[in-house]
Amino acid sequence: MGLLGWEVLSPQNSIAAVLYPSPVRVSSIRVFPTGAQPFSQSPETLAVTEPAAFFLDVFFNAHPIQVTSVSQDSQEKRVVKNALAPTRIAYAGGSTEFTVDMGPEYATRLIIFRGDFEVISVAIYGEVVTEIPEVSGYETKPLPAPTSMTLSPSVDLASSTNPTLLAENLLSLLPTSPPLSLVSRLVFSLKPEDEDWDDPDFPYIYSDLDNDEVMDLEGLVQSVTRPIRDDISPETLSRFATKMHDYLGSNPSDDAYFVAKLLTKAASQQTRISRTLLQHIDLPKVFNEHTLDETTILCLLDAAANIEIARYFSEDEEFLKGFEELQSSPKIDKSTQKALKRLLTRLRGWQSFEDALSNPDGDFAASAAFLKDIATGELSLGCWLECMLIHDNLATKLRRHPVPSRPQPPPLPLLFQERHSAILHVQFIAFVRALLGVSSVLAALAWADSIGNSPCRERALGVLVLWQGVDGYREIVNHCLLLRQLTKRLGWNKTDDVPTKSGNLAERLLVGLAKDPQAMLRECLVDTVLSLEPPFSFIEAEEMLEIGKLARVARDGLSSAIEELTYTSVRPFSLRRLRVLRVSLAIVEEELAYDDGEWHVLDSFWDEHHQGIAPTLTSMLVDISDDLNHHFALTPMPCMNQALSDLLFRTADDLLHLITRFVLVYPSNGRDLRHISTAIADLYACSRAACARFCVSSAAHLAALNIRQTCPQILRNFTDPNVHVEVGTSSAQIALRALLDHASQSAGRDPVYHILQLYDLIDNILPQPGNSMSNGTAEADIESSFWTASIFPKVLPELTAFCHLLEAETRAVFVERLQRLDNGETGIGEWLLIEEMNNLSTTLNNLAGSTQEDNYRLILRYQISTSILFFDLLLSSSRASAWAVSSLSSNADLSQLFDSCLSLILDANLSSLSLTRFTRQLAKHASDFGPDVRFNILLLTLRNARMDPSVGNALDFVPGMLESLPSTAISVDPLRNEVGRMISAYSDHAPSLKEDNAEMLLLTLEWLASQEDVKLSILGGISLESFHYLCSMLAAVLSSARMDALTTVETKLSIDEDETFPPSTTELPEALTLPLQSIENLLSPKPFEPSTPKRGTKTPDILGVVISPPAALLRSPAATGLTKTYTANDFRQLRQVPSTRLNTSRLPSTHG
Fold it and tell me: Rounded to 5 degrees, what are φ and ψ at 111?
């Protein structure tokens, strides 16, 4: 993109314009302030823009780009309409660039600027475009490789040894820069009075602990509303604590509240202050059943955000035990019990967090929950931040960990999400650093906004906007911005009549917050969004309508959420509709957290819309999975919308977790469970396609990974043995049957990947052999027995059809998996082997008798090849080989089928690498099979040796099989022909004959020569000359001790050179490749070709009456044609003929 023009425009009637001689495509417009030098190579060029900030409407003349064609008449070209494409920009001062996305189909020749400005200096960047030439051929071009940029070290606080350095640098922009710890106390914890802000010494105004005018606990609390000096003497602290102790008992009903309030004030100060106060308090005496209420406990909760106070509470066993008893006491109201539960959880959370800072195997999930709870309250966050800044133990533990090497630090885990995967210790430390740094910057922002310092505020807001676009940081920033003070400050900084940089950045943060469904549940954010009024410097009109809708749904609560969930959505889903649905789902999820939440939700759904929640959510899940199927279908899509895919995945994830809450408690019907199972299968398959298509760092990729973890987890919950959806029917049976049936329905996506993803999903929900999620081997055995005895026997047809769709390698692994799970209990493995052998037998018979075209026969050969590969893989498996051999040899039905298939393979003269390997495996276990099967194995082994005589061990098992065969199992002609052709092949390769093969060859010839049947001593398929040459080469290789045996063999065996040779071997393909036209021809129905039936004998029915048509059944024999003209009363006479009463081609006459 180059410079299209440098323009200094003065408006006439608030309008200025730029006209280009030819169409251009604008990529950006850069506005420069007065006095700026826009071009380094032209220092004399200076910009002039007045006023310093204003709104500007920009209109582009939309010029469509046309495709030129040599044969196209100029008169037929499209007429260019004078259409204007409007946009609005807010110039807030400084050098600002505004990006323009015109798309490839349009350009412009005219740009119009309208606004309240006196003069404006703009540089317009883009390119000159011409009409697109007609495409004569397709030219492949590589797709651009997506690249991700790492954060600058100055703002990547997760990888910094000093996470608070950025906040300190921001505070240094102030005329008077207070310490970060003091700023944190003032903006989060102490909240200065209005008169303090006007004090000349502010913020260095401190509490006076020696005030003799204080006469009670309430006065003590009022005396510490300001910060306490860091260098305060221990004696002063001791006198203050003693005074507090002396005032206890004067008003017992209020003592607990004021002491808790005093601890809250001290929690954000130095830890020695809290420790001194606690040493003068008898906790069980002050805080007990008679003095505690919800307000007092919430004060203690904020105080417990200080590590010293939390430790003191936890170490006082009597105090802690009393709180635990109160928390479970039925005498205490629910709100107080809930507050007590939060307090006890926070005390345990400090222990987990402190341990996780140094322990690589710490409880990171509990620590993350603790940090999330801390960051939900301003006072709690301020106390925690103070501890992390000044507490030596915590700061040392955090500093002890080395910073990961750049340029690829580990990604920040999403620990503030409700559902997150397991993380590493290094990731947890990075998360803590990021939270510490972000909360420090937020403190600097709040301070700069309080004193009205624009430079510090703008930079702090800019950093937050940057973080809001980075995964990991986004979750921390959004969560902390939901603090009431910070949310309100964003609303107050919104742009007014004159655009400002702070207003633009604040609007960006608000939009990012509003699109988070969990954030929209906060009342302060809802109030802020609903109070927004134009003009805006960043928020567009449509975007304002969208976030306004989200805020109104959140404000109206459950009734509005139910209305949105039951509303029939227009398909496909839009971004706005999906965001509304996510907020509605979040409202329902929040309602379920209450004690009677489930009943309230179910009752509201039924009362307002007379329908259950589970069917409603299931229908919505099916619709969302269907939309995702269209995104990843093989049919060409106009454009991949990553933002829409991201929201579809996230909405589906929310739906699945909410559906699980109801289905597991209130059994659903089989139809809904089938729909849920197939929708999960589609979501799982689409997530794999999304992971392969989207950039690893994109939001859509992360959403796909999240749903990929959710789907197996949800299905495992549904298929638990204790979950039933109908009387006598387990949910596992319905879900598994639905998944198996769905394998052939890829919904337009790649069917191969669809089947593989379904296999992976089924493999995830089946229990592992000898292992289970359950505790104890007995429970694991019960779970395995449940599947093998109660589920698999009821889905055998579906299971067989699914196995047939799998590739040979996957099929072998799946059958082995099922066999190990079954462990011989029901014989599911043997059943699948029988079905596979039946398919192989049918295919072999079809190939032998097929008169179809070559492509159809090629497909049959490929099916045979995959079946043989399947059996080869089973016999080659270390864990399944023994079972496969035992099944093929000991099962009568299977053994008979196996013998038939081997015979058909021999008759068809088939050959392939997998058949060769399969034959070798069979030869190793030949003694386990019956004589008939063993003879066929022998013939295949001889054929293998003939195909590749260079293999060293090709004949190792031949003599043993010959010796073990009874004469009744030997078919003489096939055996002597195979042996003859094998000997002929070895004769051709005699110079390379090894001693091992020579010995095996001689043993084979000795056996033939020793047989009573004379036919076995007559070899076919080899010439006499070749036989003598082979014998001479055997004599050269074998030891002298074997010469007599060789001479005897050469004497006894004779050669029949008149034998005819079989047709050439048919090679089985290892892969199938067909032109698209051939596939279409095979799938298209054959045209109907009429033919005359053959003459034959009449076939009587069971009563002996010939039904092949006599003339009477067709028409009257008196009729000479299909129609007849009657005269006079001929038609009456014709009725009397007996044959006419059988049937006629006319209706009865109605003449009188």
Answer: -125, 125
Q: How far apart are CA 654 and CA 1125, in angstroms?
A: 81
Mean pLDDT for back-to-back runs of 10 residues, the chain (1152 residues): 90 92 92 92 91 92 68 46 81 90 85 93 90 68 69 87 93 92 90 86 87 82 86 88 85 84 89 88 87 90 92 90 87 87 93 91 90 92 91 84 70 73 84 94 94 93 92 90 93 86 93 91 93 89 92 93 90 93 94 84 82 88 94 74 92 93 81 93 94 84 91 90 77 92 89 93 84 52 83 91 92 92 87 92 86 84 93 91 91 90 91 90 90 91 83 82 87 84 81 79 85 81 81 83 84 74 78 85 75 59 48 45 53 52 51 48
Instruction: Count CB-CB contacts under 10 A for residue 371.
Output: 23
Rounded distance between C-alpha atoms, residue 990 and residue 1009, angstroms: 21
Instruction: Count Cα neighbours of 222 within 13 Å in the Cβ-side half-sphere.
Output: 8
Q: Is 923 helix (H, G, I), strand (E, B) or coil?
A: helix
DSSP helix/strand/coil, 122 = strand
Q: What is the dihedral of CA 781, 786, 792, 795, to 10 degrees?
A: -160
Cβ neighbour number for residue 1107 with a 10 Å cutoff: 11
How many other CB atoms sit within 10 Å of the CB of residue 79?
5
User: How is residue 369 written in tokens?
Assistant: 């929950």
Q: What is the CA radius of gyration of the chain?
A: 43
Cβ contact 803:744 at 8 Å: no
As a whole number of angstroms, the distance between CA 267 and CA 189 comes to 9
* DSSP β-bridge partners for residue 126: 2, 26
Q: How far apart are CA 1095 and CA 1102, in angstroms?
A: 21
What whole-number distance in Å separates Cα of residue 721 and Cα of residue 718? Answer: 9
Taking every pair of Cα atoms in the chain, the longest distance, rounded to a whole number of angstroms, is: 144
Nearest to 108 by CA among 86, 78, 134: 86
Q: Output the pLDDT for position 46.
A: 92
Phi (first) and psi of residue 57, to 5 degrees: -90, 130
Element (H, E) at 754: helix 751-765
CB 475 within 8 A of CB 487: no
Contact 524/488 with Cβ under 8 angstroms?
A: yes
- How far apart are alpha carbons 821 and 765 in whole angstroms? 13
Q: What is the CB neighbour count within 10 angstroms for residue 399?
A: 11
Q: Cβ distance 922 to 965 under 8 Å?
A: no
Task: Give yes or no for a contact between 301 and 262, defined as CB atoms under 8 angstroms apart.
Answer: no
**The two three-digit tokens of residue 725, written as one number:** 């959806």
Contacts of 524 (CB under 8 A, 6+ apart): 482, 484, 487, 488
Amino acid identity at 362:
G
3-state secondary structure of 127: strand
Q: What is the DSSP string of 1047-1093?
A: HHHHHH-EEETTPPPPPPPEEPPSS----HHHHHHHHSPPPP---PP
Q: Is the dihedral of CA 575, 576, 578, 579 positive or negative?
A: positive
> Alpha-carbon distance 905 to 258, whole Å?
93
C-beta separation of 204 from 181 below 8 A? no
Contact 573, 624 (CB under 8 A): yes
pLDDT of residue 146: 63
In the block, tokens 């004690």 appear at 595
Residue with structure tokens 């309250």?
Answer: 377
Q: Using CA atoms, how far apart are residues 894 and 314, in angstroms rounded to an integer? A: 69
| One-letter amino acid for residue 854 of the chain | D
User: What tokens does 783 get?
Assistant: 């779970």
What is the DSSP secondary structure assignment for residue 305, as one 8-state letter?
A: T
Q: Report the candidate in 791, 767, 788, 789 with the shortest Cα–Cα distance to residue 779.
A: 767
Which pLDDT does position 9 carry in this prediction?
A: 93
CA–CA distances in Å: residue 449 to residues 481, 487, 1150: 14, 12, 105
